[in-house]
């Protein structure tokens, strides 16, 4: 790794932080190398490298951000490269920052929308990092709603030559584009009609995602966020409208993350979830923040990070206490149960499922339920039970709950029904009912072929891996023939 020529001024800031953290030079170098591996970087720093940094030499590339992240993890507070006396560079966790103000939150999430709506395919290849879950969830738990989100006027930047600059737009750098008369520009007042439209758009994209998978309309959603939602956030609005606007932006951003997760763009999805969490804080909507954390927990379960998933679900529970409606409490306990199930923790999983069942039982007709939690009904709870029992290899119980979920679940939730059908096929396989398992698996494979959902395809592949010990059996050969006919 090539370094810049040494500077004469010793780096006292770095020396002080090394002492505070209790690192040796070799220990710091080792941690930087390990963090680099998380990001696909083959770094070869040693104690001599750290000695050079202390003498004033500046590391190149993203290394200053990696060093800052090492200290952030160790000391439990967010540190930048400048805090260490190093040159500024792009954060190693760009997009995972938990912004200090609503304005900064809009800047961060707006940058994500613009990059994602363009031709930045590399953004969808960013890796998921479990370490990136710690600081945002902690900051949300101990944080409070922003005191003020209203924007009564839009600041105008004055360039050096003294002429007012064009207000910042939501368009990415490049050739200027004329805006049609009906298209929103920054600075316009946000109306009640705007807020109602955001809600309707969210329902539309949620329906498309449930029926056809995240890949069908994800890009259209991201472009809507860029060209409609960001200008609204940079518009003018009072406190009440501002809270509703940030709530709608949080919901749409979480949905953009959910659809990214469904197409296996896991690092990008993680960033959307973190920014949705921050927007929910600006909205002063603690319950929705807990729902975002549950979404993050589900992604962690899917990727095999059970311990992190448990922690996220528990942070969500701590963050709302007993104030959330029973249906929301059910959702939180079910997420914890799924994480314990992944880890094979039978008692903890069972206890969380019991809490979820009791919470749903406490719900009464006429209870006020947030629109985003209305999907969680008896069918969804049965689905959660089925997944948990499958993971615990309690196949008879898994089959019973999966069958109940399929009986109750509306056809509009096509992808969820597909997942549940695979859970049932897996349970039947575990019970030795090979014919039924293969029939259910073939039905699920046919549904997956009609969707743009990597998760749906992965559920089918997981079932096929479980079929391997029986690959020469007639039902399995028949299954393979049916799948091959799908093309």
Q: What would you say this structure looks like, in words?
A:
The protein has about 475 residues and is mostly helical. It has 20 helices and no strands. The chain folds into four domains: about 70 residues; about 150 residues, no CATH class; about 70 residues; about 110 residues, Serine Threonine Protein Phosphatase 5, Tetratricopeptide repeat (Alpha Horseshoe), CATH 1.25.40. The longest helix is centred in the middle third of the chain and has 24 residues. About 5% of the residues have low confidence. It comes from Streptomyces olivaceus. This is Regulator.
Brief write-up:
By secondary structure, the protein is mainly alpha-helical. It contains 20 helices and no strands.
Describe the sheet with the most strands.
none
- Determine the N-to-C terminus distance: 48 Å
Helix content: 55-70%
Alpha carbon gyration radius: 25 Å
**What is the residue-averaged pLDDT?**
89
Helical segment tally? Answer: 20
Give the percentage of residues in beta strands. Answer: under 5%
Q: Give the uncertain stretches in residue-range form.
A: 157-179
SSE order, one letter for each helix or strand: HHHHHHHHHHHHHHHHHHHH
Q: How many E strands?
A: 0
Helix and strand composition category: mainly alpha
- Total tally of structural domains: 4
Overall outline: globular
Which characteristics define this entry?
mainly alpha, 487 residues, globular, single chain, 4 domains, 62% helix, 20 helices
């Amino acid at each position: 790794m090539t370094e810049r020529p040494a500077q004469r001024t010793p780096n006292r800031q770095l020396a002080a932080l090394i002492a505070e953290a209790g690192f040796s030079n070799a220990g710091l170098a080792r941690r930087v190398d390990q963090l680099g591996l998380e990001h696909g970087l083959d770094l070869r720093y040693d104690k001599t490298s750290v000695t050079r940094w202390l003498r004033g030499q500046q590391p190149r590339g993203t290394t200053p951000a990696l060093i800052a992240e090492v200290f952030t993890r160790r000391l439990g507070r967010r540190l930048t490269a400048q805090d260490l006396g190093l040159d500024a560079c792009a954060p190693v966790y760009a997009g995972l920052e938990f912004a200090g103000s609503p304005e900064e939150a809009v800047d961060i999430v707006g940058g994500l929308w613009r990059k994602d709506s363009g031709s930045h395919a590399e953004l969808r290849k960013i890796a998921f990092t479990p370490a990136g879950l710690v600081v945002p969830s902690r900051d949300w738990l101990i944080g409070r709603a922003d005191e003020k989100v209203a924007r009564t006027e839009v600041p105008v930047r004055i360039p050096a030559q003294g002429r007012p600059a064009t207000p910042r737009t939501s368009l990415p750098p490049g050739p200027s584009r004329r805006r049609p008369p009906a298209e929103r520009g920054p600075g316009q007042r946000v109306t009640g009609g705007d807020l109602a439209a955001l809600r309707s758009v969210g329902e539309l994209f949620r329906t498309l995602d449930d029926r056809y998978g995240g890949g069908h309309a994800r890009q259209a959603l991201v472009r809507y966020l860029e060209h409609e939602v960001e200008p609204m956030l940079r518009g003018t609005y009072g406190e009440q409208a501002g809270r509703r606007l940030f709530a709608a932006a949080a919901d749409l951003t979480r949905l953009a993350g959910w659809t990214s997760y469904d197409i296996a763009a896991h690092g990008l999805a993680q960033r959307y979830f973190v920014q949705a969490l921050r927007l929910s804080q600006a909205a002063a909507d603690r319950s929705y923040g807990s729902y975002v954390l549950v979404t993050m927990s589900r992604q962690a379960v899917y990727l095999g990070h059970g311990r992190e998933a448990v922690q996220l679900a528990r942070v969500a529970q701590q963050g709302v206490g007993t104030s959330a409606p029973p249906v929301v409490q059910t959702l939180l306990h079910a997420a914890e149960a799924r994480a314990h199930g992944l880890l094979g923790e039978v008692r903890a999983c069972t206890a969380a499922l019991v809490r979820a069942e009791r919470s749903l039982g406490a719900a009464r007709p006429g209870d006020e339920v947030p629109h985003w939690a209305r999907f969680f009904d008896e069918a969804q709870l049965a689905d959660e039970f089925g997944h948990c029992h499958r993971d615990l290899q309690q196949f008879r119980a898994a089959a019973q709950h999966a069958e109940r979920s399929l009986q109750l679940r509306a056809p509009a939730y096509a992808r969820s029904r597909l997942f549940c059908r695979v859970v049932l096929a897996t349970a039947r396989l575990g019970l030795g009912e090979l014919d039924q398992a293969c029939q259910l698996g073939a039905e699920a494979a046919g549904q997956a072929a009609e969707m743009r959902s990597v998760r749906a395809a992965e559920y089918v592949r997981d079932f096929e891996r479980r079929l391997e010990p029986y690959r020469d059996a007639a039902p399995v050969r028949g299954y393979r023939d049916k799948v091959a006919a799908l093309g």
